[in-house]
Design brief:
It is a single chain. A three-stranded antiparallel beta sheet has the order 1-3-2, with helices on one face. Strands 4-5 form a two-stranded antiparallel sheet. Helices cover 20% and strands 27% of the residues. The protein is an alpha+beta fold. The termini are far apart.
């Protein structure tokens, strides 16, 4: 079962010192539990209009990452999701098909 979905941590988080639940002490502590892990994927490879790097917190579903990858659309090529426009304003780029 996937317990939590949140945007993945990407380089721009570090560059802009952006916050993410994946960097919280509570999240990293939970990941030390048995059968708990993170699943990383791009929603664009599942048919979304943007790449949107995403992370799921999963518990007791070690095959979830493989199941998501098995459903990727190979004809899509996701581009970067976030493009800085100065300050904290971001734009979303469409997938290239």
């Amino acid at each position: 079962m996937a317990l939590l979905e949140h945007p993945a941590v990407i380089e721009k988080h570090e560059h802009y010192l952006a916050r993410s639940i994946w960097l919280l002490e509570e999240s990293t502590g939970l990941l030390k539990s048995i059968d708990v892990g993170l699943v990383h994927f791009r929603q664009g490879m599942l048919g979304a209009r943007t790449a949107k790097p995403t992370t799921l917190l999963q518990m007791r579903v070690p095959t979830l990452q493989g199941r998501i990858i098995a459903n990727y659309f190979p004809q899509t090529v996701p581009c970067d999701t976030l493009g800085a426009r100065g300050g904290w304003h971001f734009q979303f780029n469409l997938l290239l098909v």
